[in-house]
Amino acid sequence: MAVDTSLSERKLIILKAIIQNYLETGEPVGSRTLSKYTELNLSSATIRNEMADLEDLGYIFQPHTSAGRIPSDKGYRLYVDMLMEEKEQEITDREDAMLEKADKVEKVLQQAAKVLASNTNYATMVSAPINSRNTLKFIQLSQVDAEQIVAVIVLGGNVIKNKIIEVGETLSNENLLKLNMLLNTTLNGMSIDQITLGLIARLKEQAGIHSEVVGHVLDAVAEIIHVEDDMKIYTSGATNIFKYPELSDKQSAQEIISAFEEKQQLEDLVTETLASENNHGIQVYIGDETPVKTMKDCSVVTATYELGEGMKGTIGIIGPKRMNYEHVMKTLKTLQSELDAIYNKNPKE
Amino acid sequence: MAVDTSLSERKLIILKAIIQNYLETGEPVGSRTLSKYTELNLSSATIRNEMADLEDLGYIFQPHTSAGRIPSDKGYRLYVDMLMEEKEQEITDREDAMLEKADKVEKVLQQAAKVLASNTNYATMVSAPINSRNTLKFIQLSQVDAEQIVAVIVLGGNVIKNKIIEVGETLSNENLLKLNMLLNTTLNGMSIDQITLGLIARLKEQAGIHSEVVGHVLDAVAEIIHVEDDMKIYTSGATNIFKYPELSDKQSAQEIISAFEEKQQLEDLVTETLASENNHGIQVYIGDETPVKTMKDCSVVTATYELGEGMKGTIGIIGPKRMNYEHVMKTLKTLQSELDAIYNKNPKE
DNA sequence: TATTAGCACTCCCTTCTTTTGAGTGCTAAC
DNA sequence: GTTAGCACTCAAAAGAAGGGAGTGCTAATA
Predict the structure, then answer these.
(1) Low-confidence residues of chain B, pLDDT below 70?
(2) Is the CB of A66 under 7 A from strand D?
(3) What separation in angstroms does the CA of B127 have from each of A257, B232, B274, B303, B343?
(4) What is residue A112's predicted lDDT score, i.e. its pLDDT?
(5) In which residue ranges of chain A is pLDDT below 50?
């Protein structure tokens, strides 16, 4: 993303002033307003000339003739990339902790979304981390009754998966014991990715192909391990978009809120964010840049957090393009490090 | 709910015509329209007289002078009551199956909400059944590593609960085995309600009070069993309310959709529905009758379904007062029996 | 050459007025 | 008891008028 250096210092100042003003008021910004707002002591006429240039260059535009200017996507992009007051060094003055510890990951994430929403007044989402690079810590099959076996699998970070396996034929206690031994010795410490179908096939051989039941059970185990838990996404503040007239006409509101209700599109957003290079930083999608078409009139800011063992999740904020980028990014960073803190201090709670 | 018999036959016909017409159009209904709409061949003037009476009796009202009439809550109530009496026997003509089988309860319920929403064009919710009267089928503690034990509990309907228990001190294999025996023999077949703290205390004695670890583990087990899984509620079609102008101004829309996002109020609704007497039927709340104040401008129709073993859940539809009650109630009944069918045919899948 | 004052022009928004039309209530006739 | 007829009401739609914020352009100024 090369910075366009063709803009004069003065144009940059004016552009910045336009954007900041527009972020505050939500109204198109006129030349007279600017001539007071900026410290360059210029008349409105001069500023008008500069504005005309900025418009030609595509950074701002008029919603209609005889209105002030508002930033275009390109303008916002420039602003986010270089004009924003960088608070980089100020991460030290951490805000008060926002999150309370809770014993269930689920609760924490739901709360994170909520806090974020009330903190920013935008719509927010938090995705639960995905397990595929997680490792297996423990596995056990137990007989529930003659026809049911329950399989329990403990992964790193104390994630537990389980399922009931229906078996036609009773498995002897002895065989079950053997199977448990075999599974634990073989699979322990492996990551989910590593447990391939080939490996399972080899296990079947070792366990004795003669038994159909065993084969069936092993297949089921493989399935449990691999069934991607569908991505859990927690949302909050979807109705915040009603606070922004540019998003709250029926059409847009319905689309955006639907996206939050159905979650499918948010999943896409998460996938995209996790796939993107810029992984530890914060990602800003302005308007059409967004991976999710429903949000092409919004800005979307996302961050990735990590719970160790390669388990990554995403935090996202969706709001109008005239979003308070500075505040949002700062808040995201804070939350990011709080999540880190919570989960690295007591990974075993 | 006794039907007000003080209304003449003719008034009833007119009222019904007014309501049906209003349900279709959403516009106030005038006397001229009615004089064509009804088969009683009456002039608009006559109908006007009857309408004036109906207004005095509180069944209809004018949004403003010189407008047609709109049903009042009382009017809707009469209509719904009448409707229910009429249709009682017609449950036989089942519609096509709407639900697909799925192995996870979660999926089925989510899908149920979705189907219902697209079928009715209202906002819908389905609450997952609550387990408190469910019985314990199987319990097992297993050593994950030196400091962790995983407890797995299988309940009726194949509901599985589990948790990792942190222990300071390693529990010997032998002791664990004993404990498992004890737990299974004692608790098997009991309902969650029956497993009291007193019972746990007695268990502790039997297991040998001397061991602190054992005490700790038993406490943890009790906790797992009793921790009320917070009520899971699946929603769909919240944005359908945008289809009804009377609900889709920003204020109402925001309130209703928030209720769907936060879920708290929906929980209240479920609680209320489950507590109500009329348990196997269908409940209709019109306007102010609703247990949830946010929905005082809506009608709410709920039904209870049962998954055996006393596990009850609720299905609900939220829409404008001029809801198509007939269709909604029919659809709810169908869904109710479909849920029954799915879970009683194959309780073990 | 860069800046500014001045002015005509554009177009949105608000407010006010007018028109239209659906619907009512009442009265008098059938 | 029913109906035709008529005056009246009121919301919503359609114009009409004025105000105001803002622009682009030109000509004067430093």
Answers:
(1) 1-5, 86-97, 101-103, 208-210, 228-229, 277-280, 308-309, 344-349
(2) yes
(3) 21, 6, 11, 11, 15
(4) 95
(5) 1-4, 89, 91-93, 346-349
- In three-state form (DSSP H/G/I as H, E/B as E, the rest C), the secondary structure along chain A is CCCCCCCCHHHHHHHHHHHHHHHHHCCCECHHHHHHHCCCCCCHHHHHHHHHHHHHCCCEECCCCCCCEEECHHHHHHHHHHHCCCCHHHHHCCCCCCCCCCCCHHHHHHHHHHHHHHHHCCEEEEECCCCCCCEEEEEEEEEEECCEEEEEEEEHHHEEEEEEEECCCCCCHHHHHHHHHHHHHHHCCCEHHHCCHHHHHHHHHHHCCCCHHHHHHHHHHHHHHHCCCCCCEEEECHHHHHHCHHHCCHHHHHHHHHHHHHCHHHHHHHHHHHHCCCCCCEEEEEHHHCCCHHHCCEEEEEEEEECCCCCEEEEEEEEECCCCHHHHHHHHHHHHHHHHHHHHHCCCC
CA distance B191 to B195: 7
Provide the pLDDT for residue A5.
Answer: 55
* Residue-wise pLDDT tens digits, B272-317: 998 886 656 899 999 999 999 999 999 999 999 887 667 789 999 9
Helix axes A250-262, A264-275, angle to 10 degrees: 70
Query: A250–B254: do the CB atoms touch at under 8 Å?
Result: no
**pLDDT tens sequence across B97-142:** 677 766 677 888 999 999 999 999 999 999 998 877 788 899 999 9
Chain A interface disruption, residue of B115, B163, B164, most A CBs within 10 A: B164
Contact B302, B273 (CB under 8 A): yes
Strand C footprint at Cβ < 7 Å? A 41-43, 45-46, 49, 64-67; B 27-33, 44-45, 48, 51-52, 55, 62, 65-69
- Give me the pLDDT at residue B230, please: 74
Query: For position B131, what pLDDT does the model report?
Result: 74
Q: Which nucleotide lies at the shortest CA–C1' distance from A68?
A: D22
Distance from CA of B80 to the nearest CA of A (A): 30
pLDDT of residue A347: 43
Q: Do A253 and B258 touch (CB under 8 A)?
A: no
